[in-house]
Amino acid sequence: TSPARGRKTTERIRLSFGRRLVYHARGTIRRMETAMRRMLAKTAAGLMFALALTAGGALAETHTENVVAEQRTYVFLQVAPSAAQAFIPQGWTLNPAAMGPTKDANLVMVWIDRKLALTPDGKQLQSGTNRLLVLLTPVKGPTGEAVNMVVGGYSMDPAGAPGAYKLYGAGPVTVDRVEKSNGRPESTVEETWAAKGPDGTAVNLHLTFTRGVPVASTFDLRIFSAAEPNFYRVYRGEQVVDFVRSVNTGVNRVPMVELKVTGNGKLATAVNGSEKIIAINTMPFYRRNTFLP
């Protein structure tokens, strides 16, 4: 074989091999493009399905309140189990926290100084401002779900009674608050709260505490009603929480606290001097939107 023929044969082999490489590469690219299109189609379908579920859930809820700003003080109590159980309906059981700063608390007093609340269309909700004392218990429902339940309360604004939970009595709820910094970053606060219901029950709380650095958090909660156990509202919002006292964590920036309840109702039976204050937290800022399912 002549050298020229050998070179031509080698070139033909190279060309043939090159064409096969090109065809193979083109086929691989087409297969990759097809697989990518299928993956994108599946991803888009999944996203549309997720969006449809989200939109469906949002459409199923009714926005009822826009609580723009509140200041709150929480007092977590451990009372006799039988006294706490008397607040909740049949089929529900007490479910105090098993750990954390509020461990063992089975009755909670929530003192609320509402600065502004609006309807979803921006109008004043009731009188726009209000002060309330709300009673909560941590409970477990018939299905085993752990939730908080409103079991009573008082509203200074008569329009707030009996309220959505059908449990609030109309009556005076007052607060006196003095805050002093004395040229230091931390401040000392003295609060005096008082509430009196139409049933004759009177509640008085007097405490002093030193503010610490609070923790900001968001929440998404379902709050049930002891009057109508199947009724609940959804709370979504932001809060700034400062635990100033907890017997479980050893925090105590409350040099003085006095709590007294008088009357003949369930609250006076539960808070009779034998109760134990498990924890106190203050919220210099709280806001939420409220929804019905």
| Quaternary structure annotation | single chain
Main sheet?
7 strands, mixed, barrel
N- to C-terminal distance? 91 Å
Mean pLDDT: 86
Q: What overall form do the CA principal axes indicate?
A: globular
Detailed description of the structure:
- The longest helix is centred in the first third of the chain and has 58 residues.
- The protein is of the alpha+beta class and about 290 residues long.
- Strand 7 and strand 8 form a beta hairpin.
- The chain is built from three helices and 13 strands; from the N terminus they run αβαβββββββββββαβ.
- About 15% of the residues have low confidence.
- The N and C termini lie far apart (about 90 Å).
Short structural description:
The protein is of the alpha+beta class and about 290 residues long.
What characteristics describe this protein?
alpha+beta; 3 helices; 23% helix; seven-stranded mixed β-barrel; 45% strand; 293 residues; four-stranded antiparallel sheet; globular; single chain
List the helices and strands and how they pair.
Layout (H helix, E strand, L loop, with lengths): L2 H58 L1 E17 L2 H5 L7 E2 L12 E12 L11 E11 L5 E10 L12 E3 L2 E8 L7 E9 L5 E9 L4 E11 L6 E15 L9 E7 L3 H5 L5 E17 L1
Parallel strand pairs: 5-6, 5-10
Antiparallel strand pairs: 1-3, 1-13, 2-4, 3-4, 4-5, 7-8, 8-9, 9-12, 10-11, 11-13
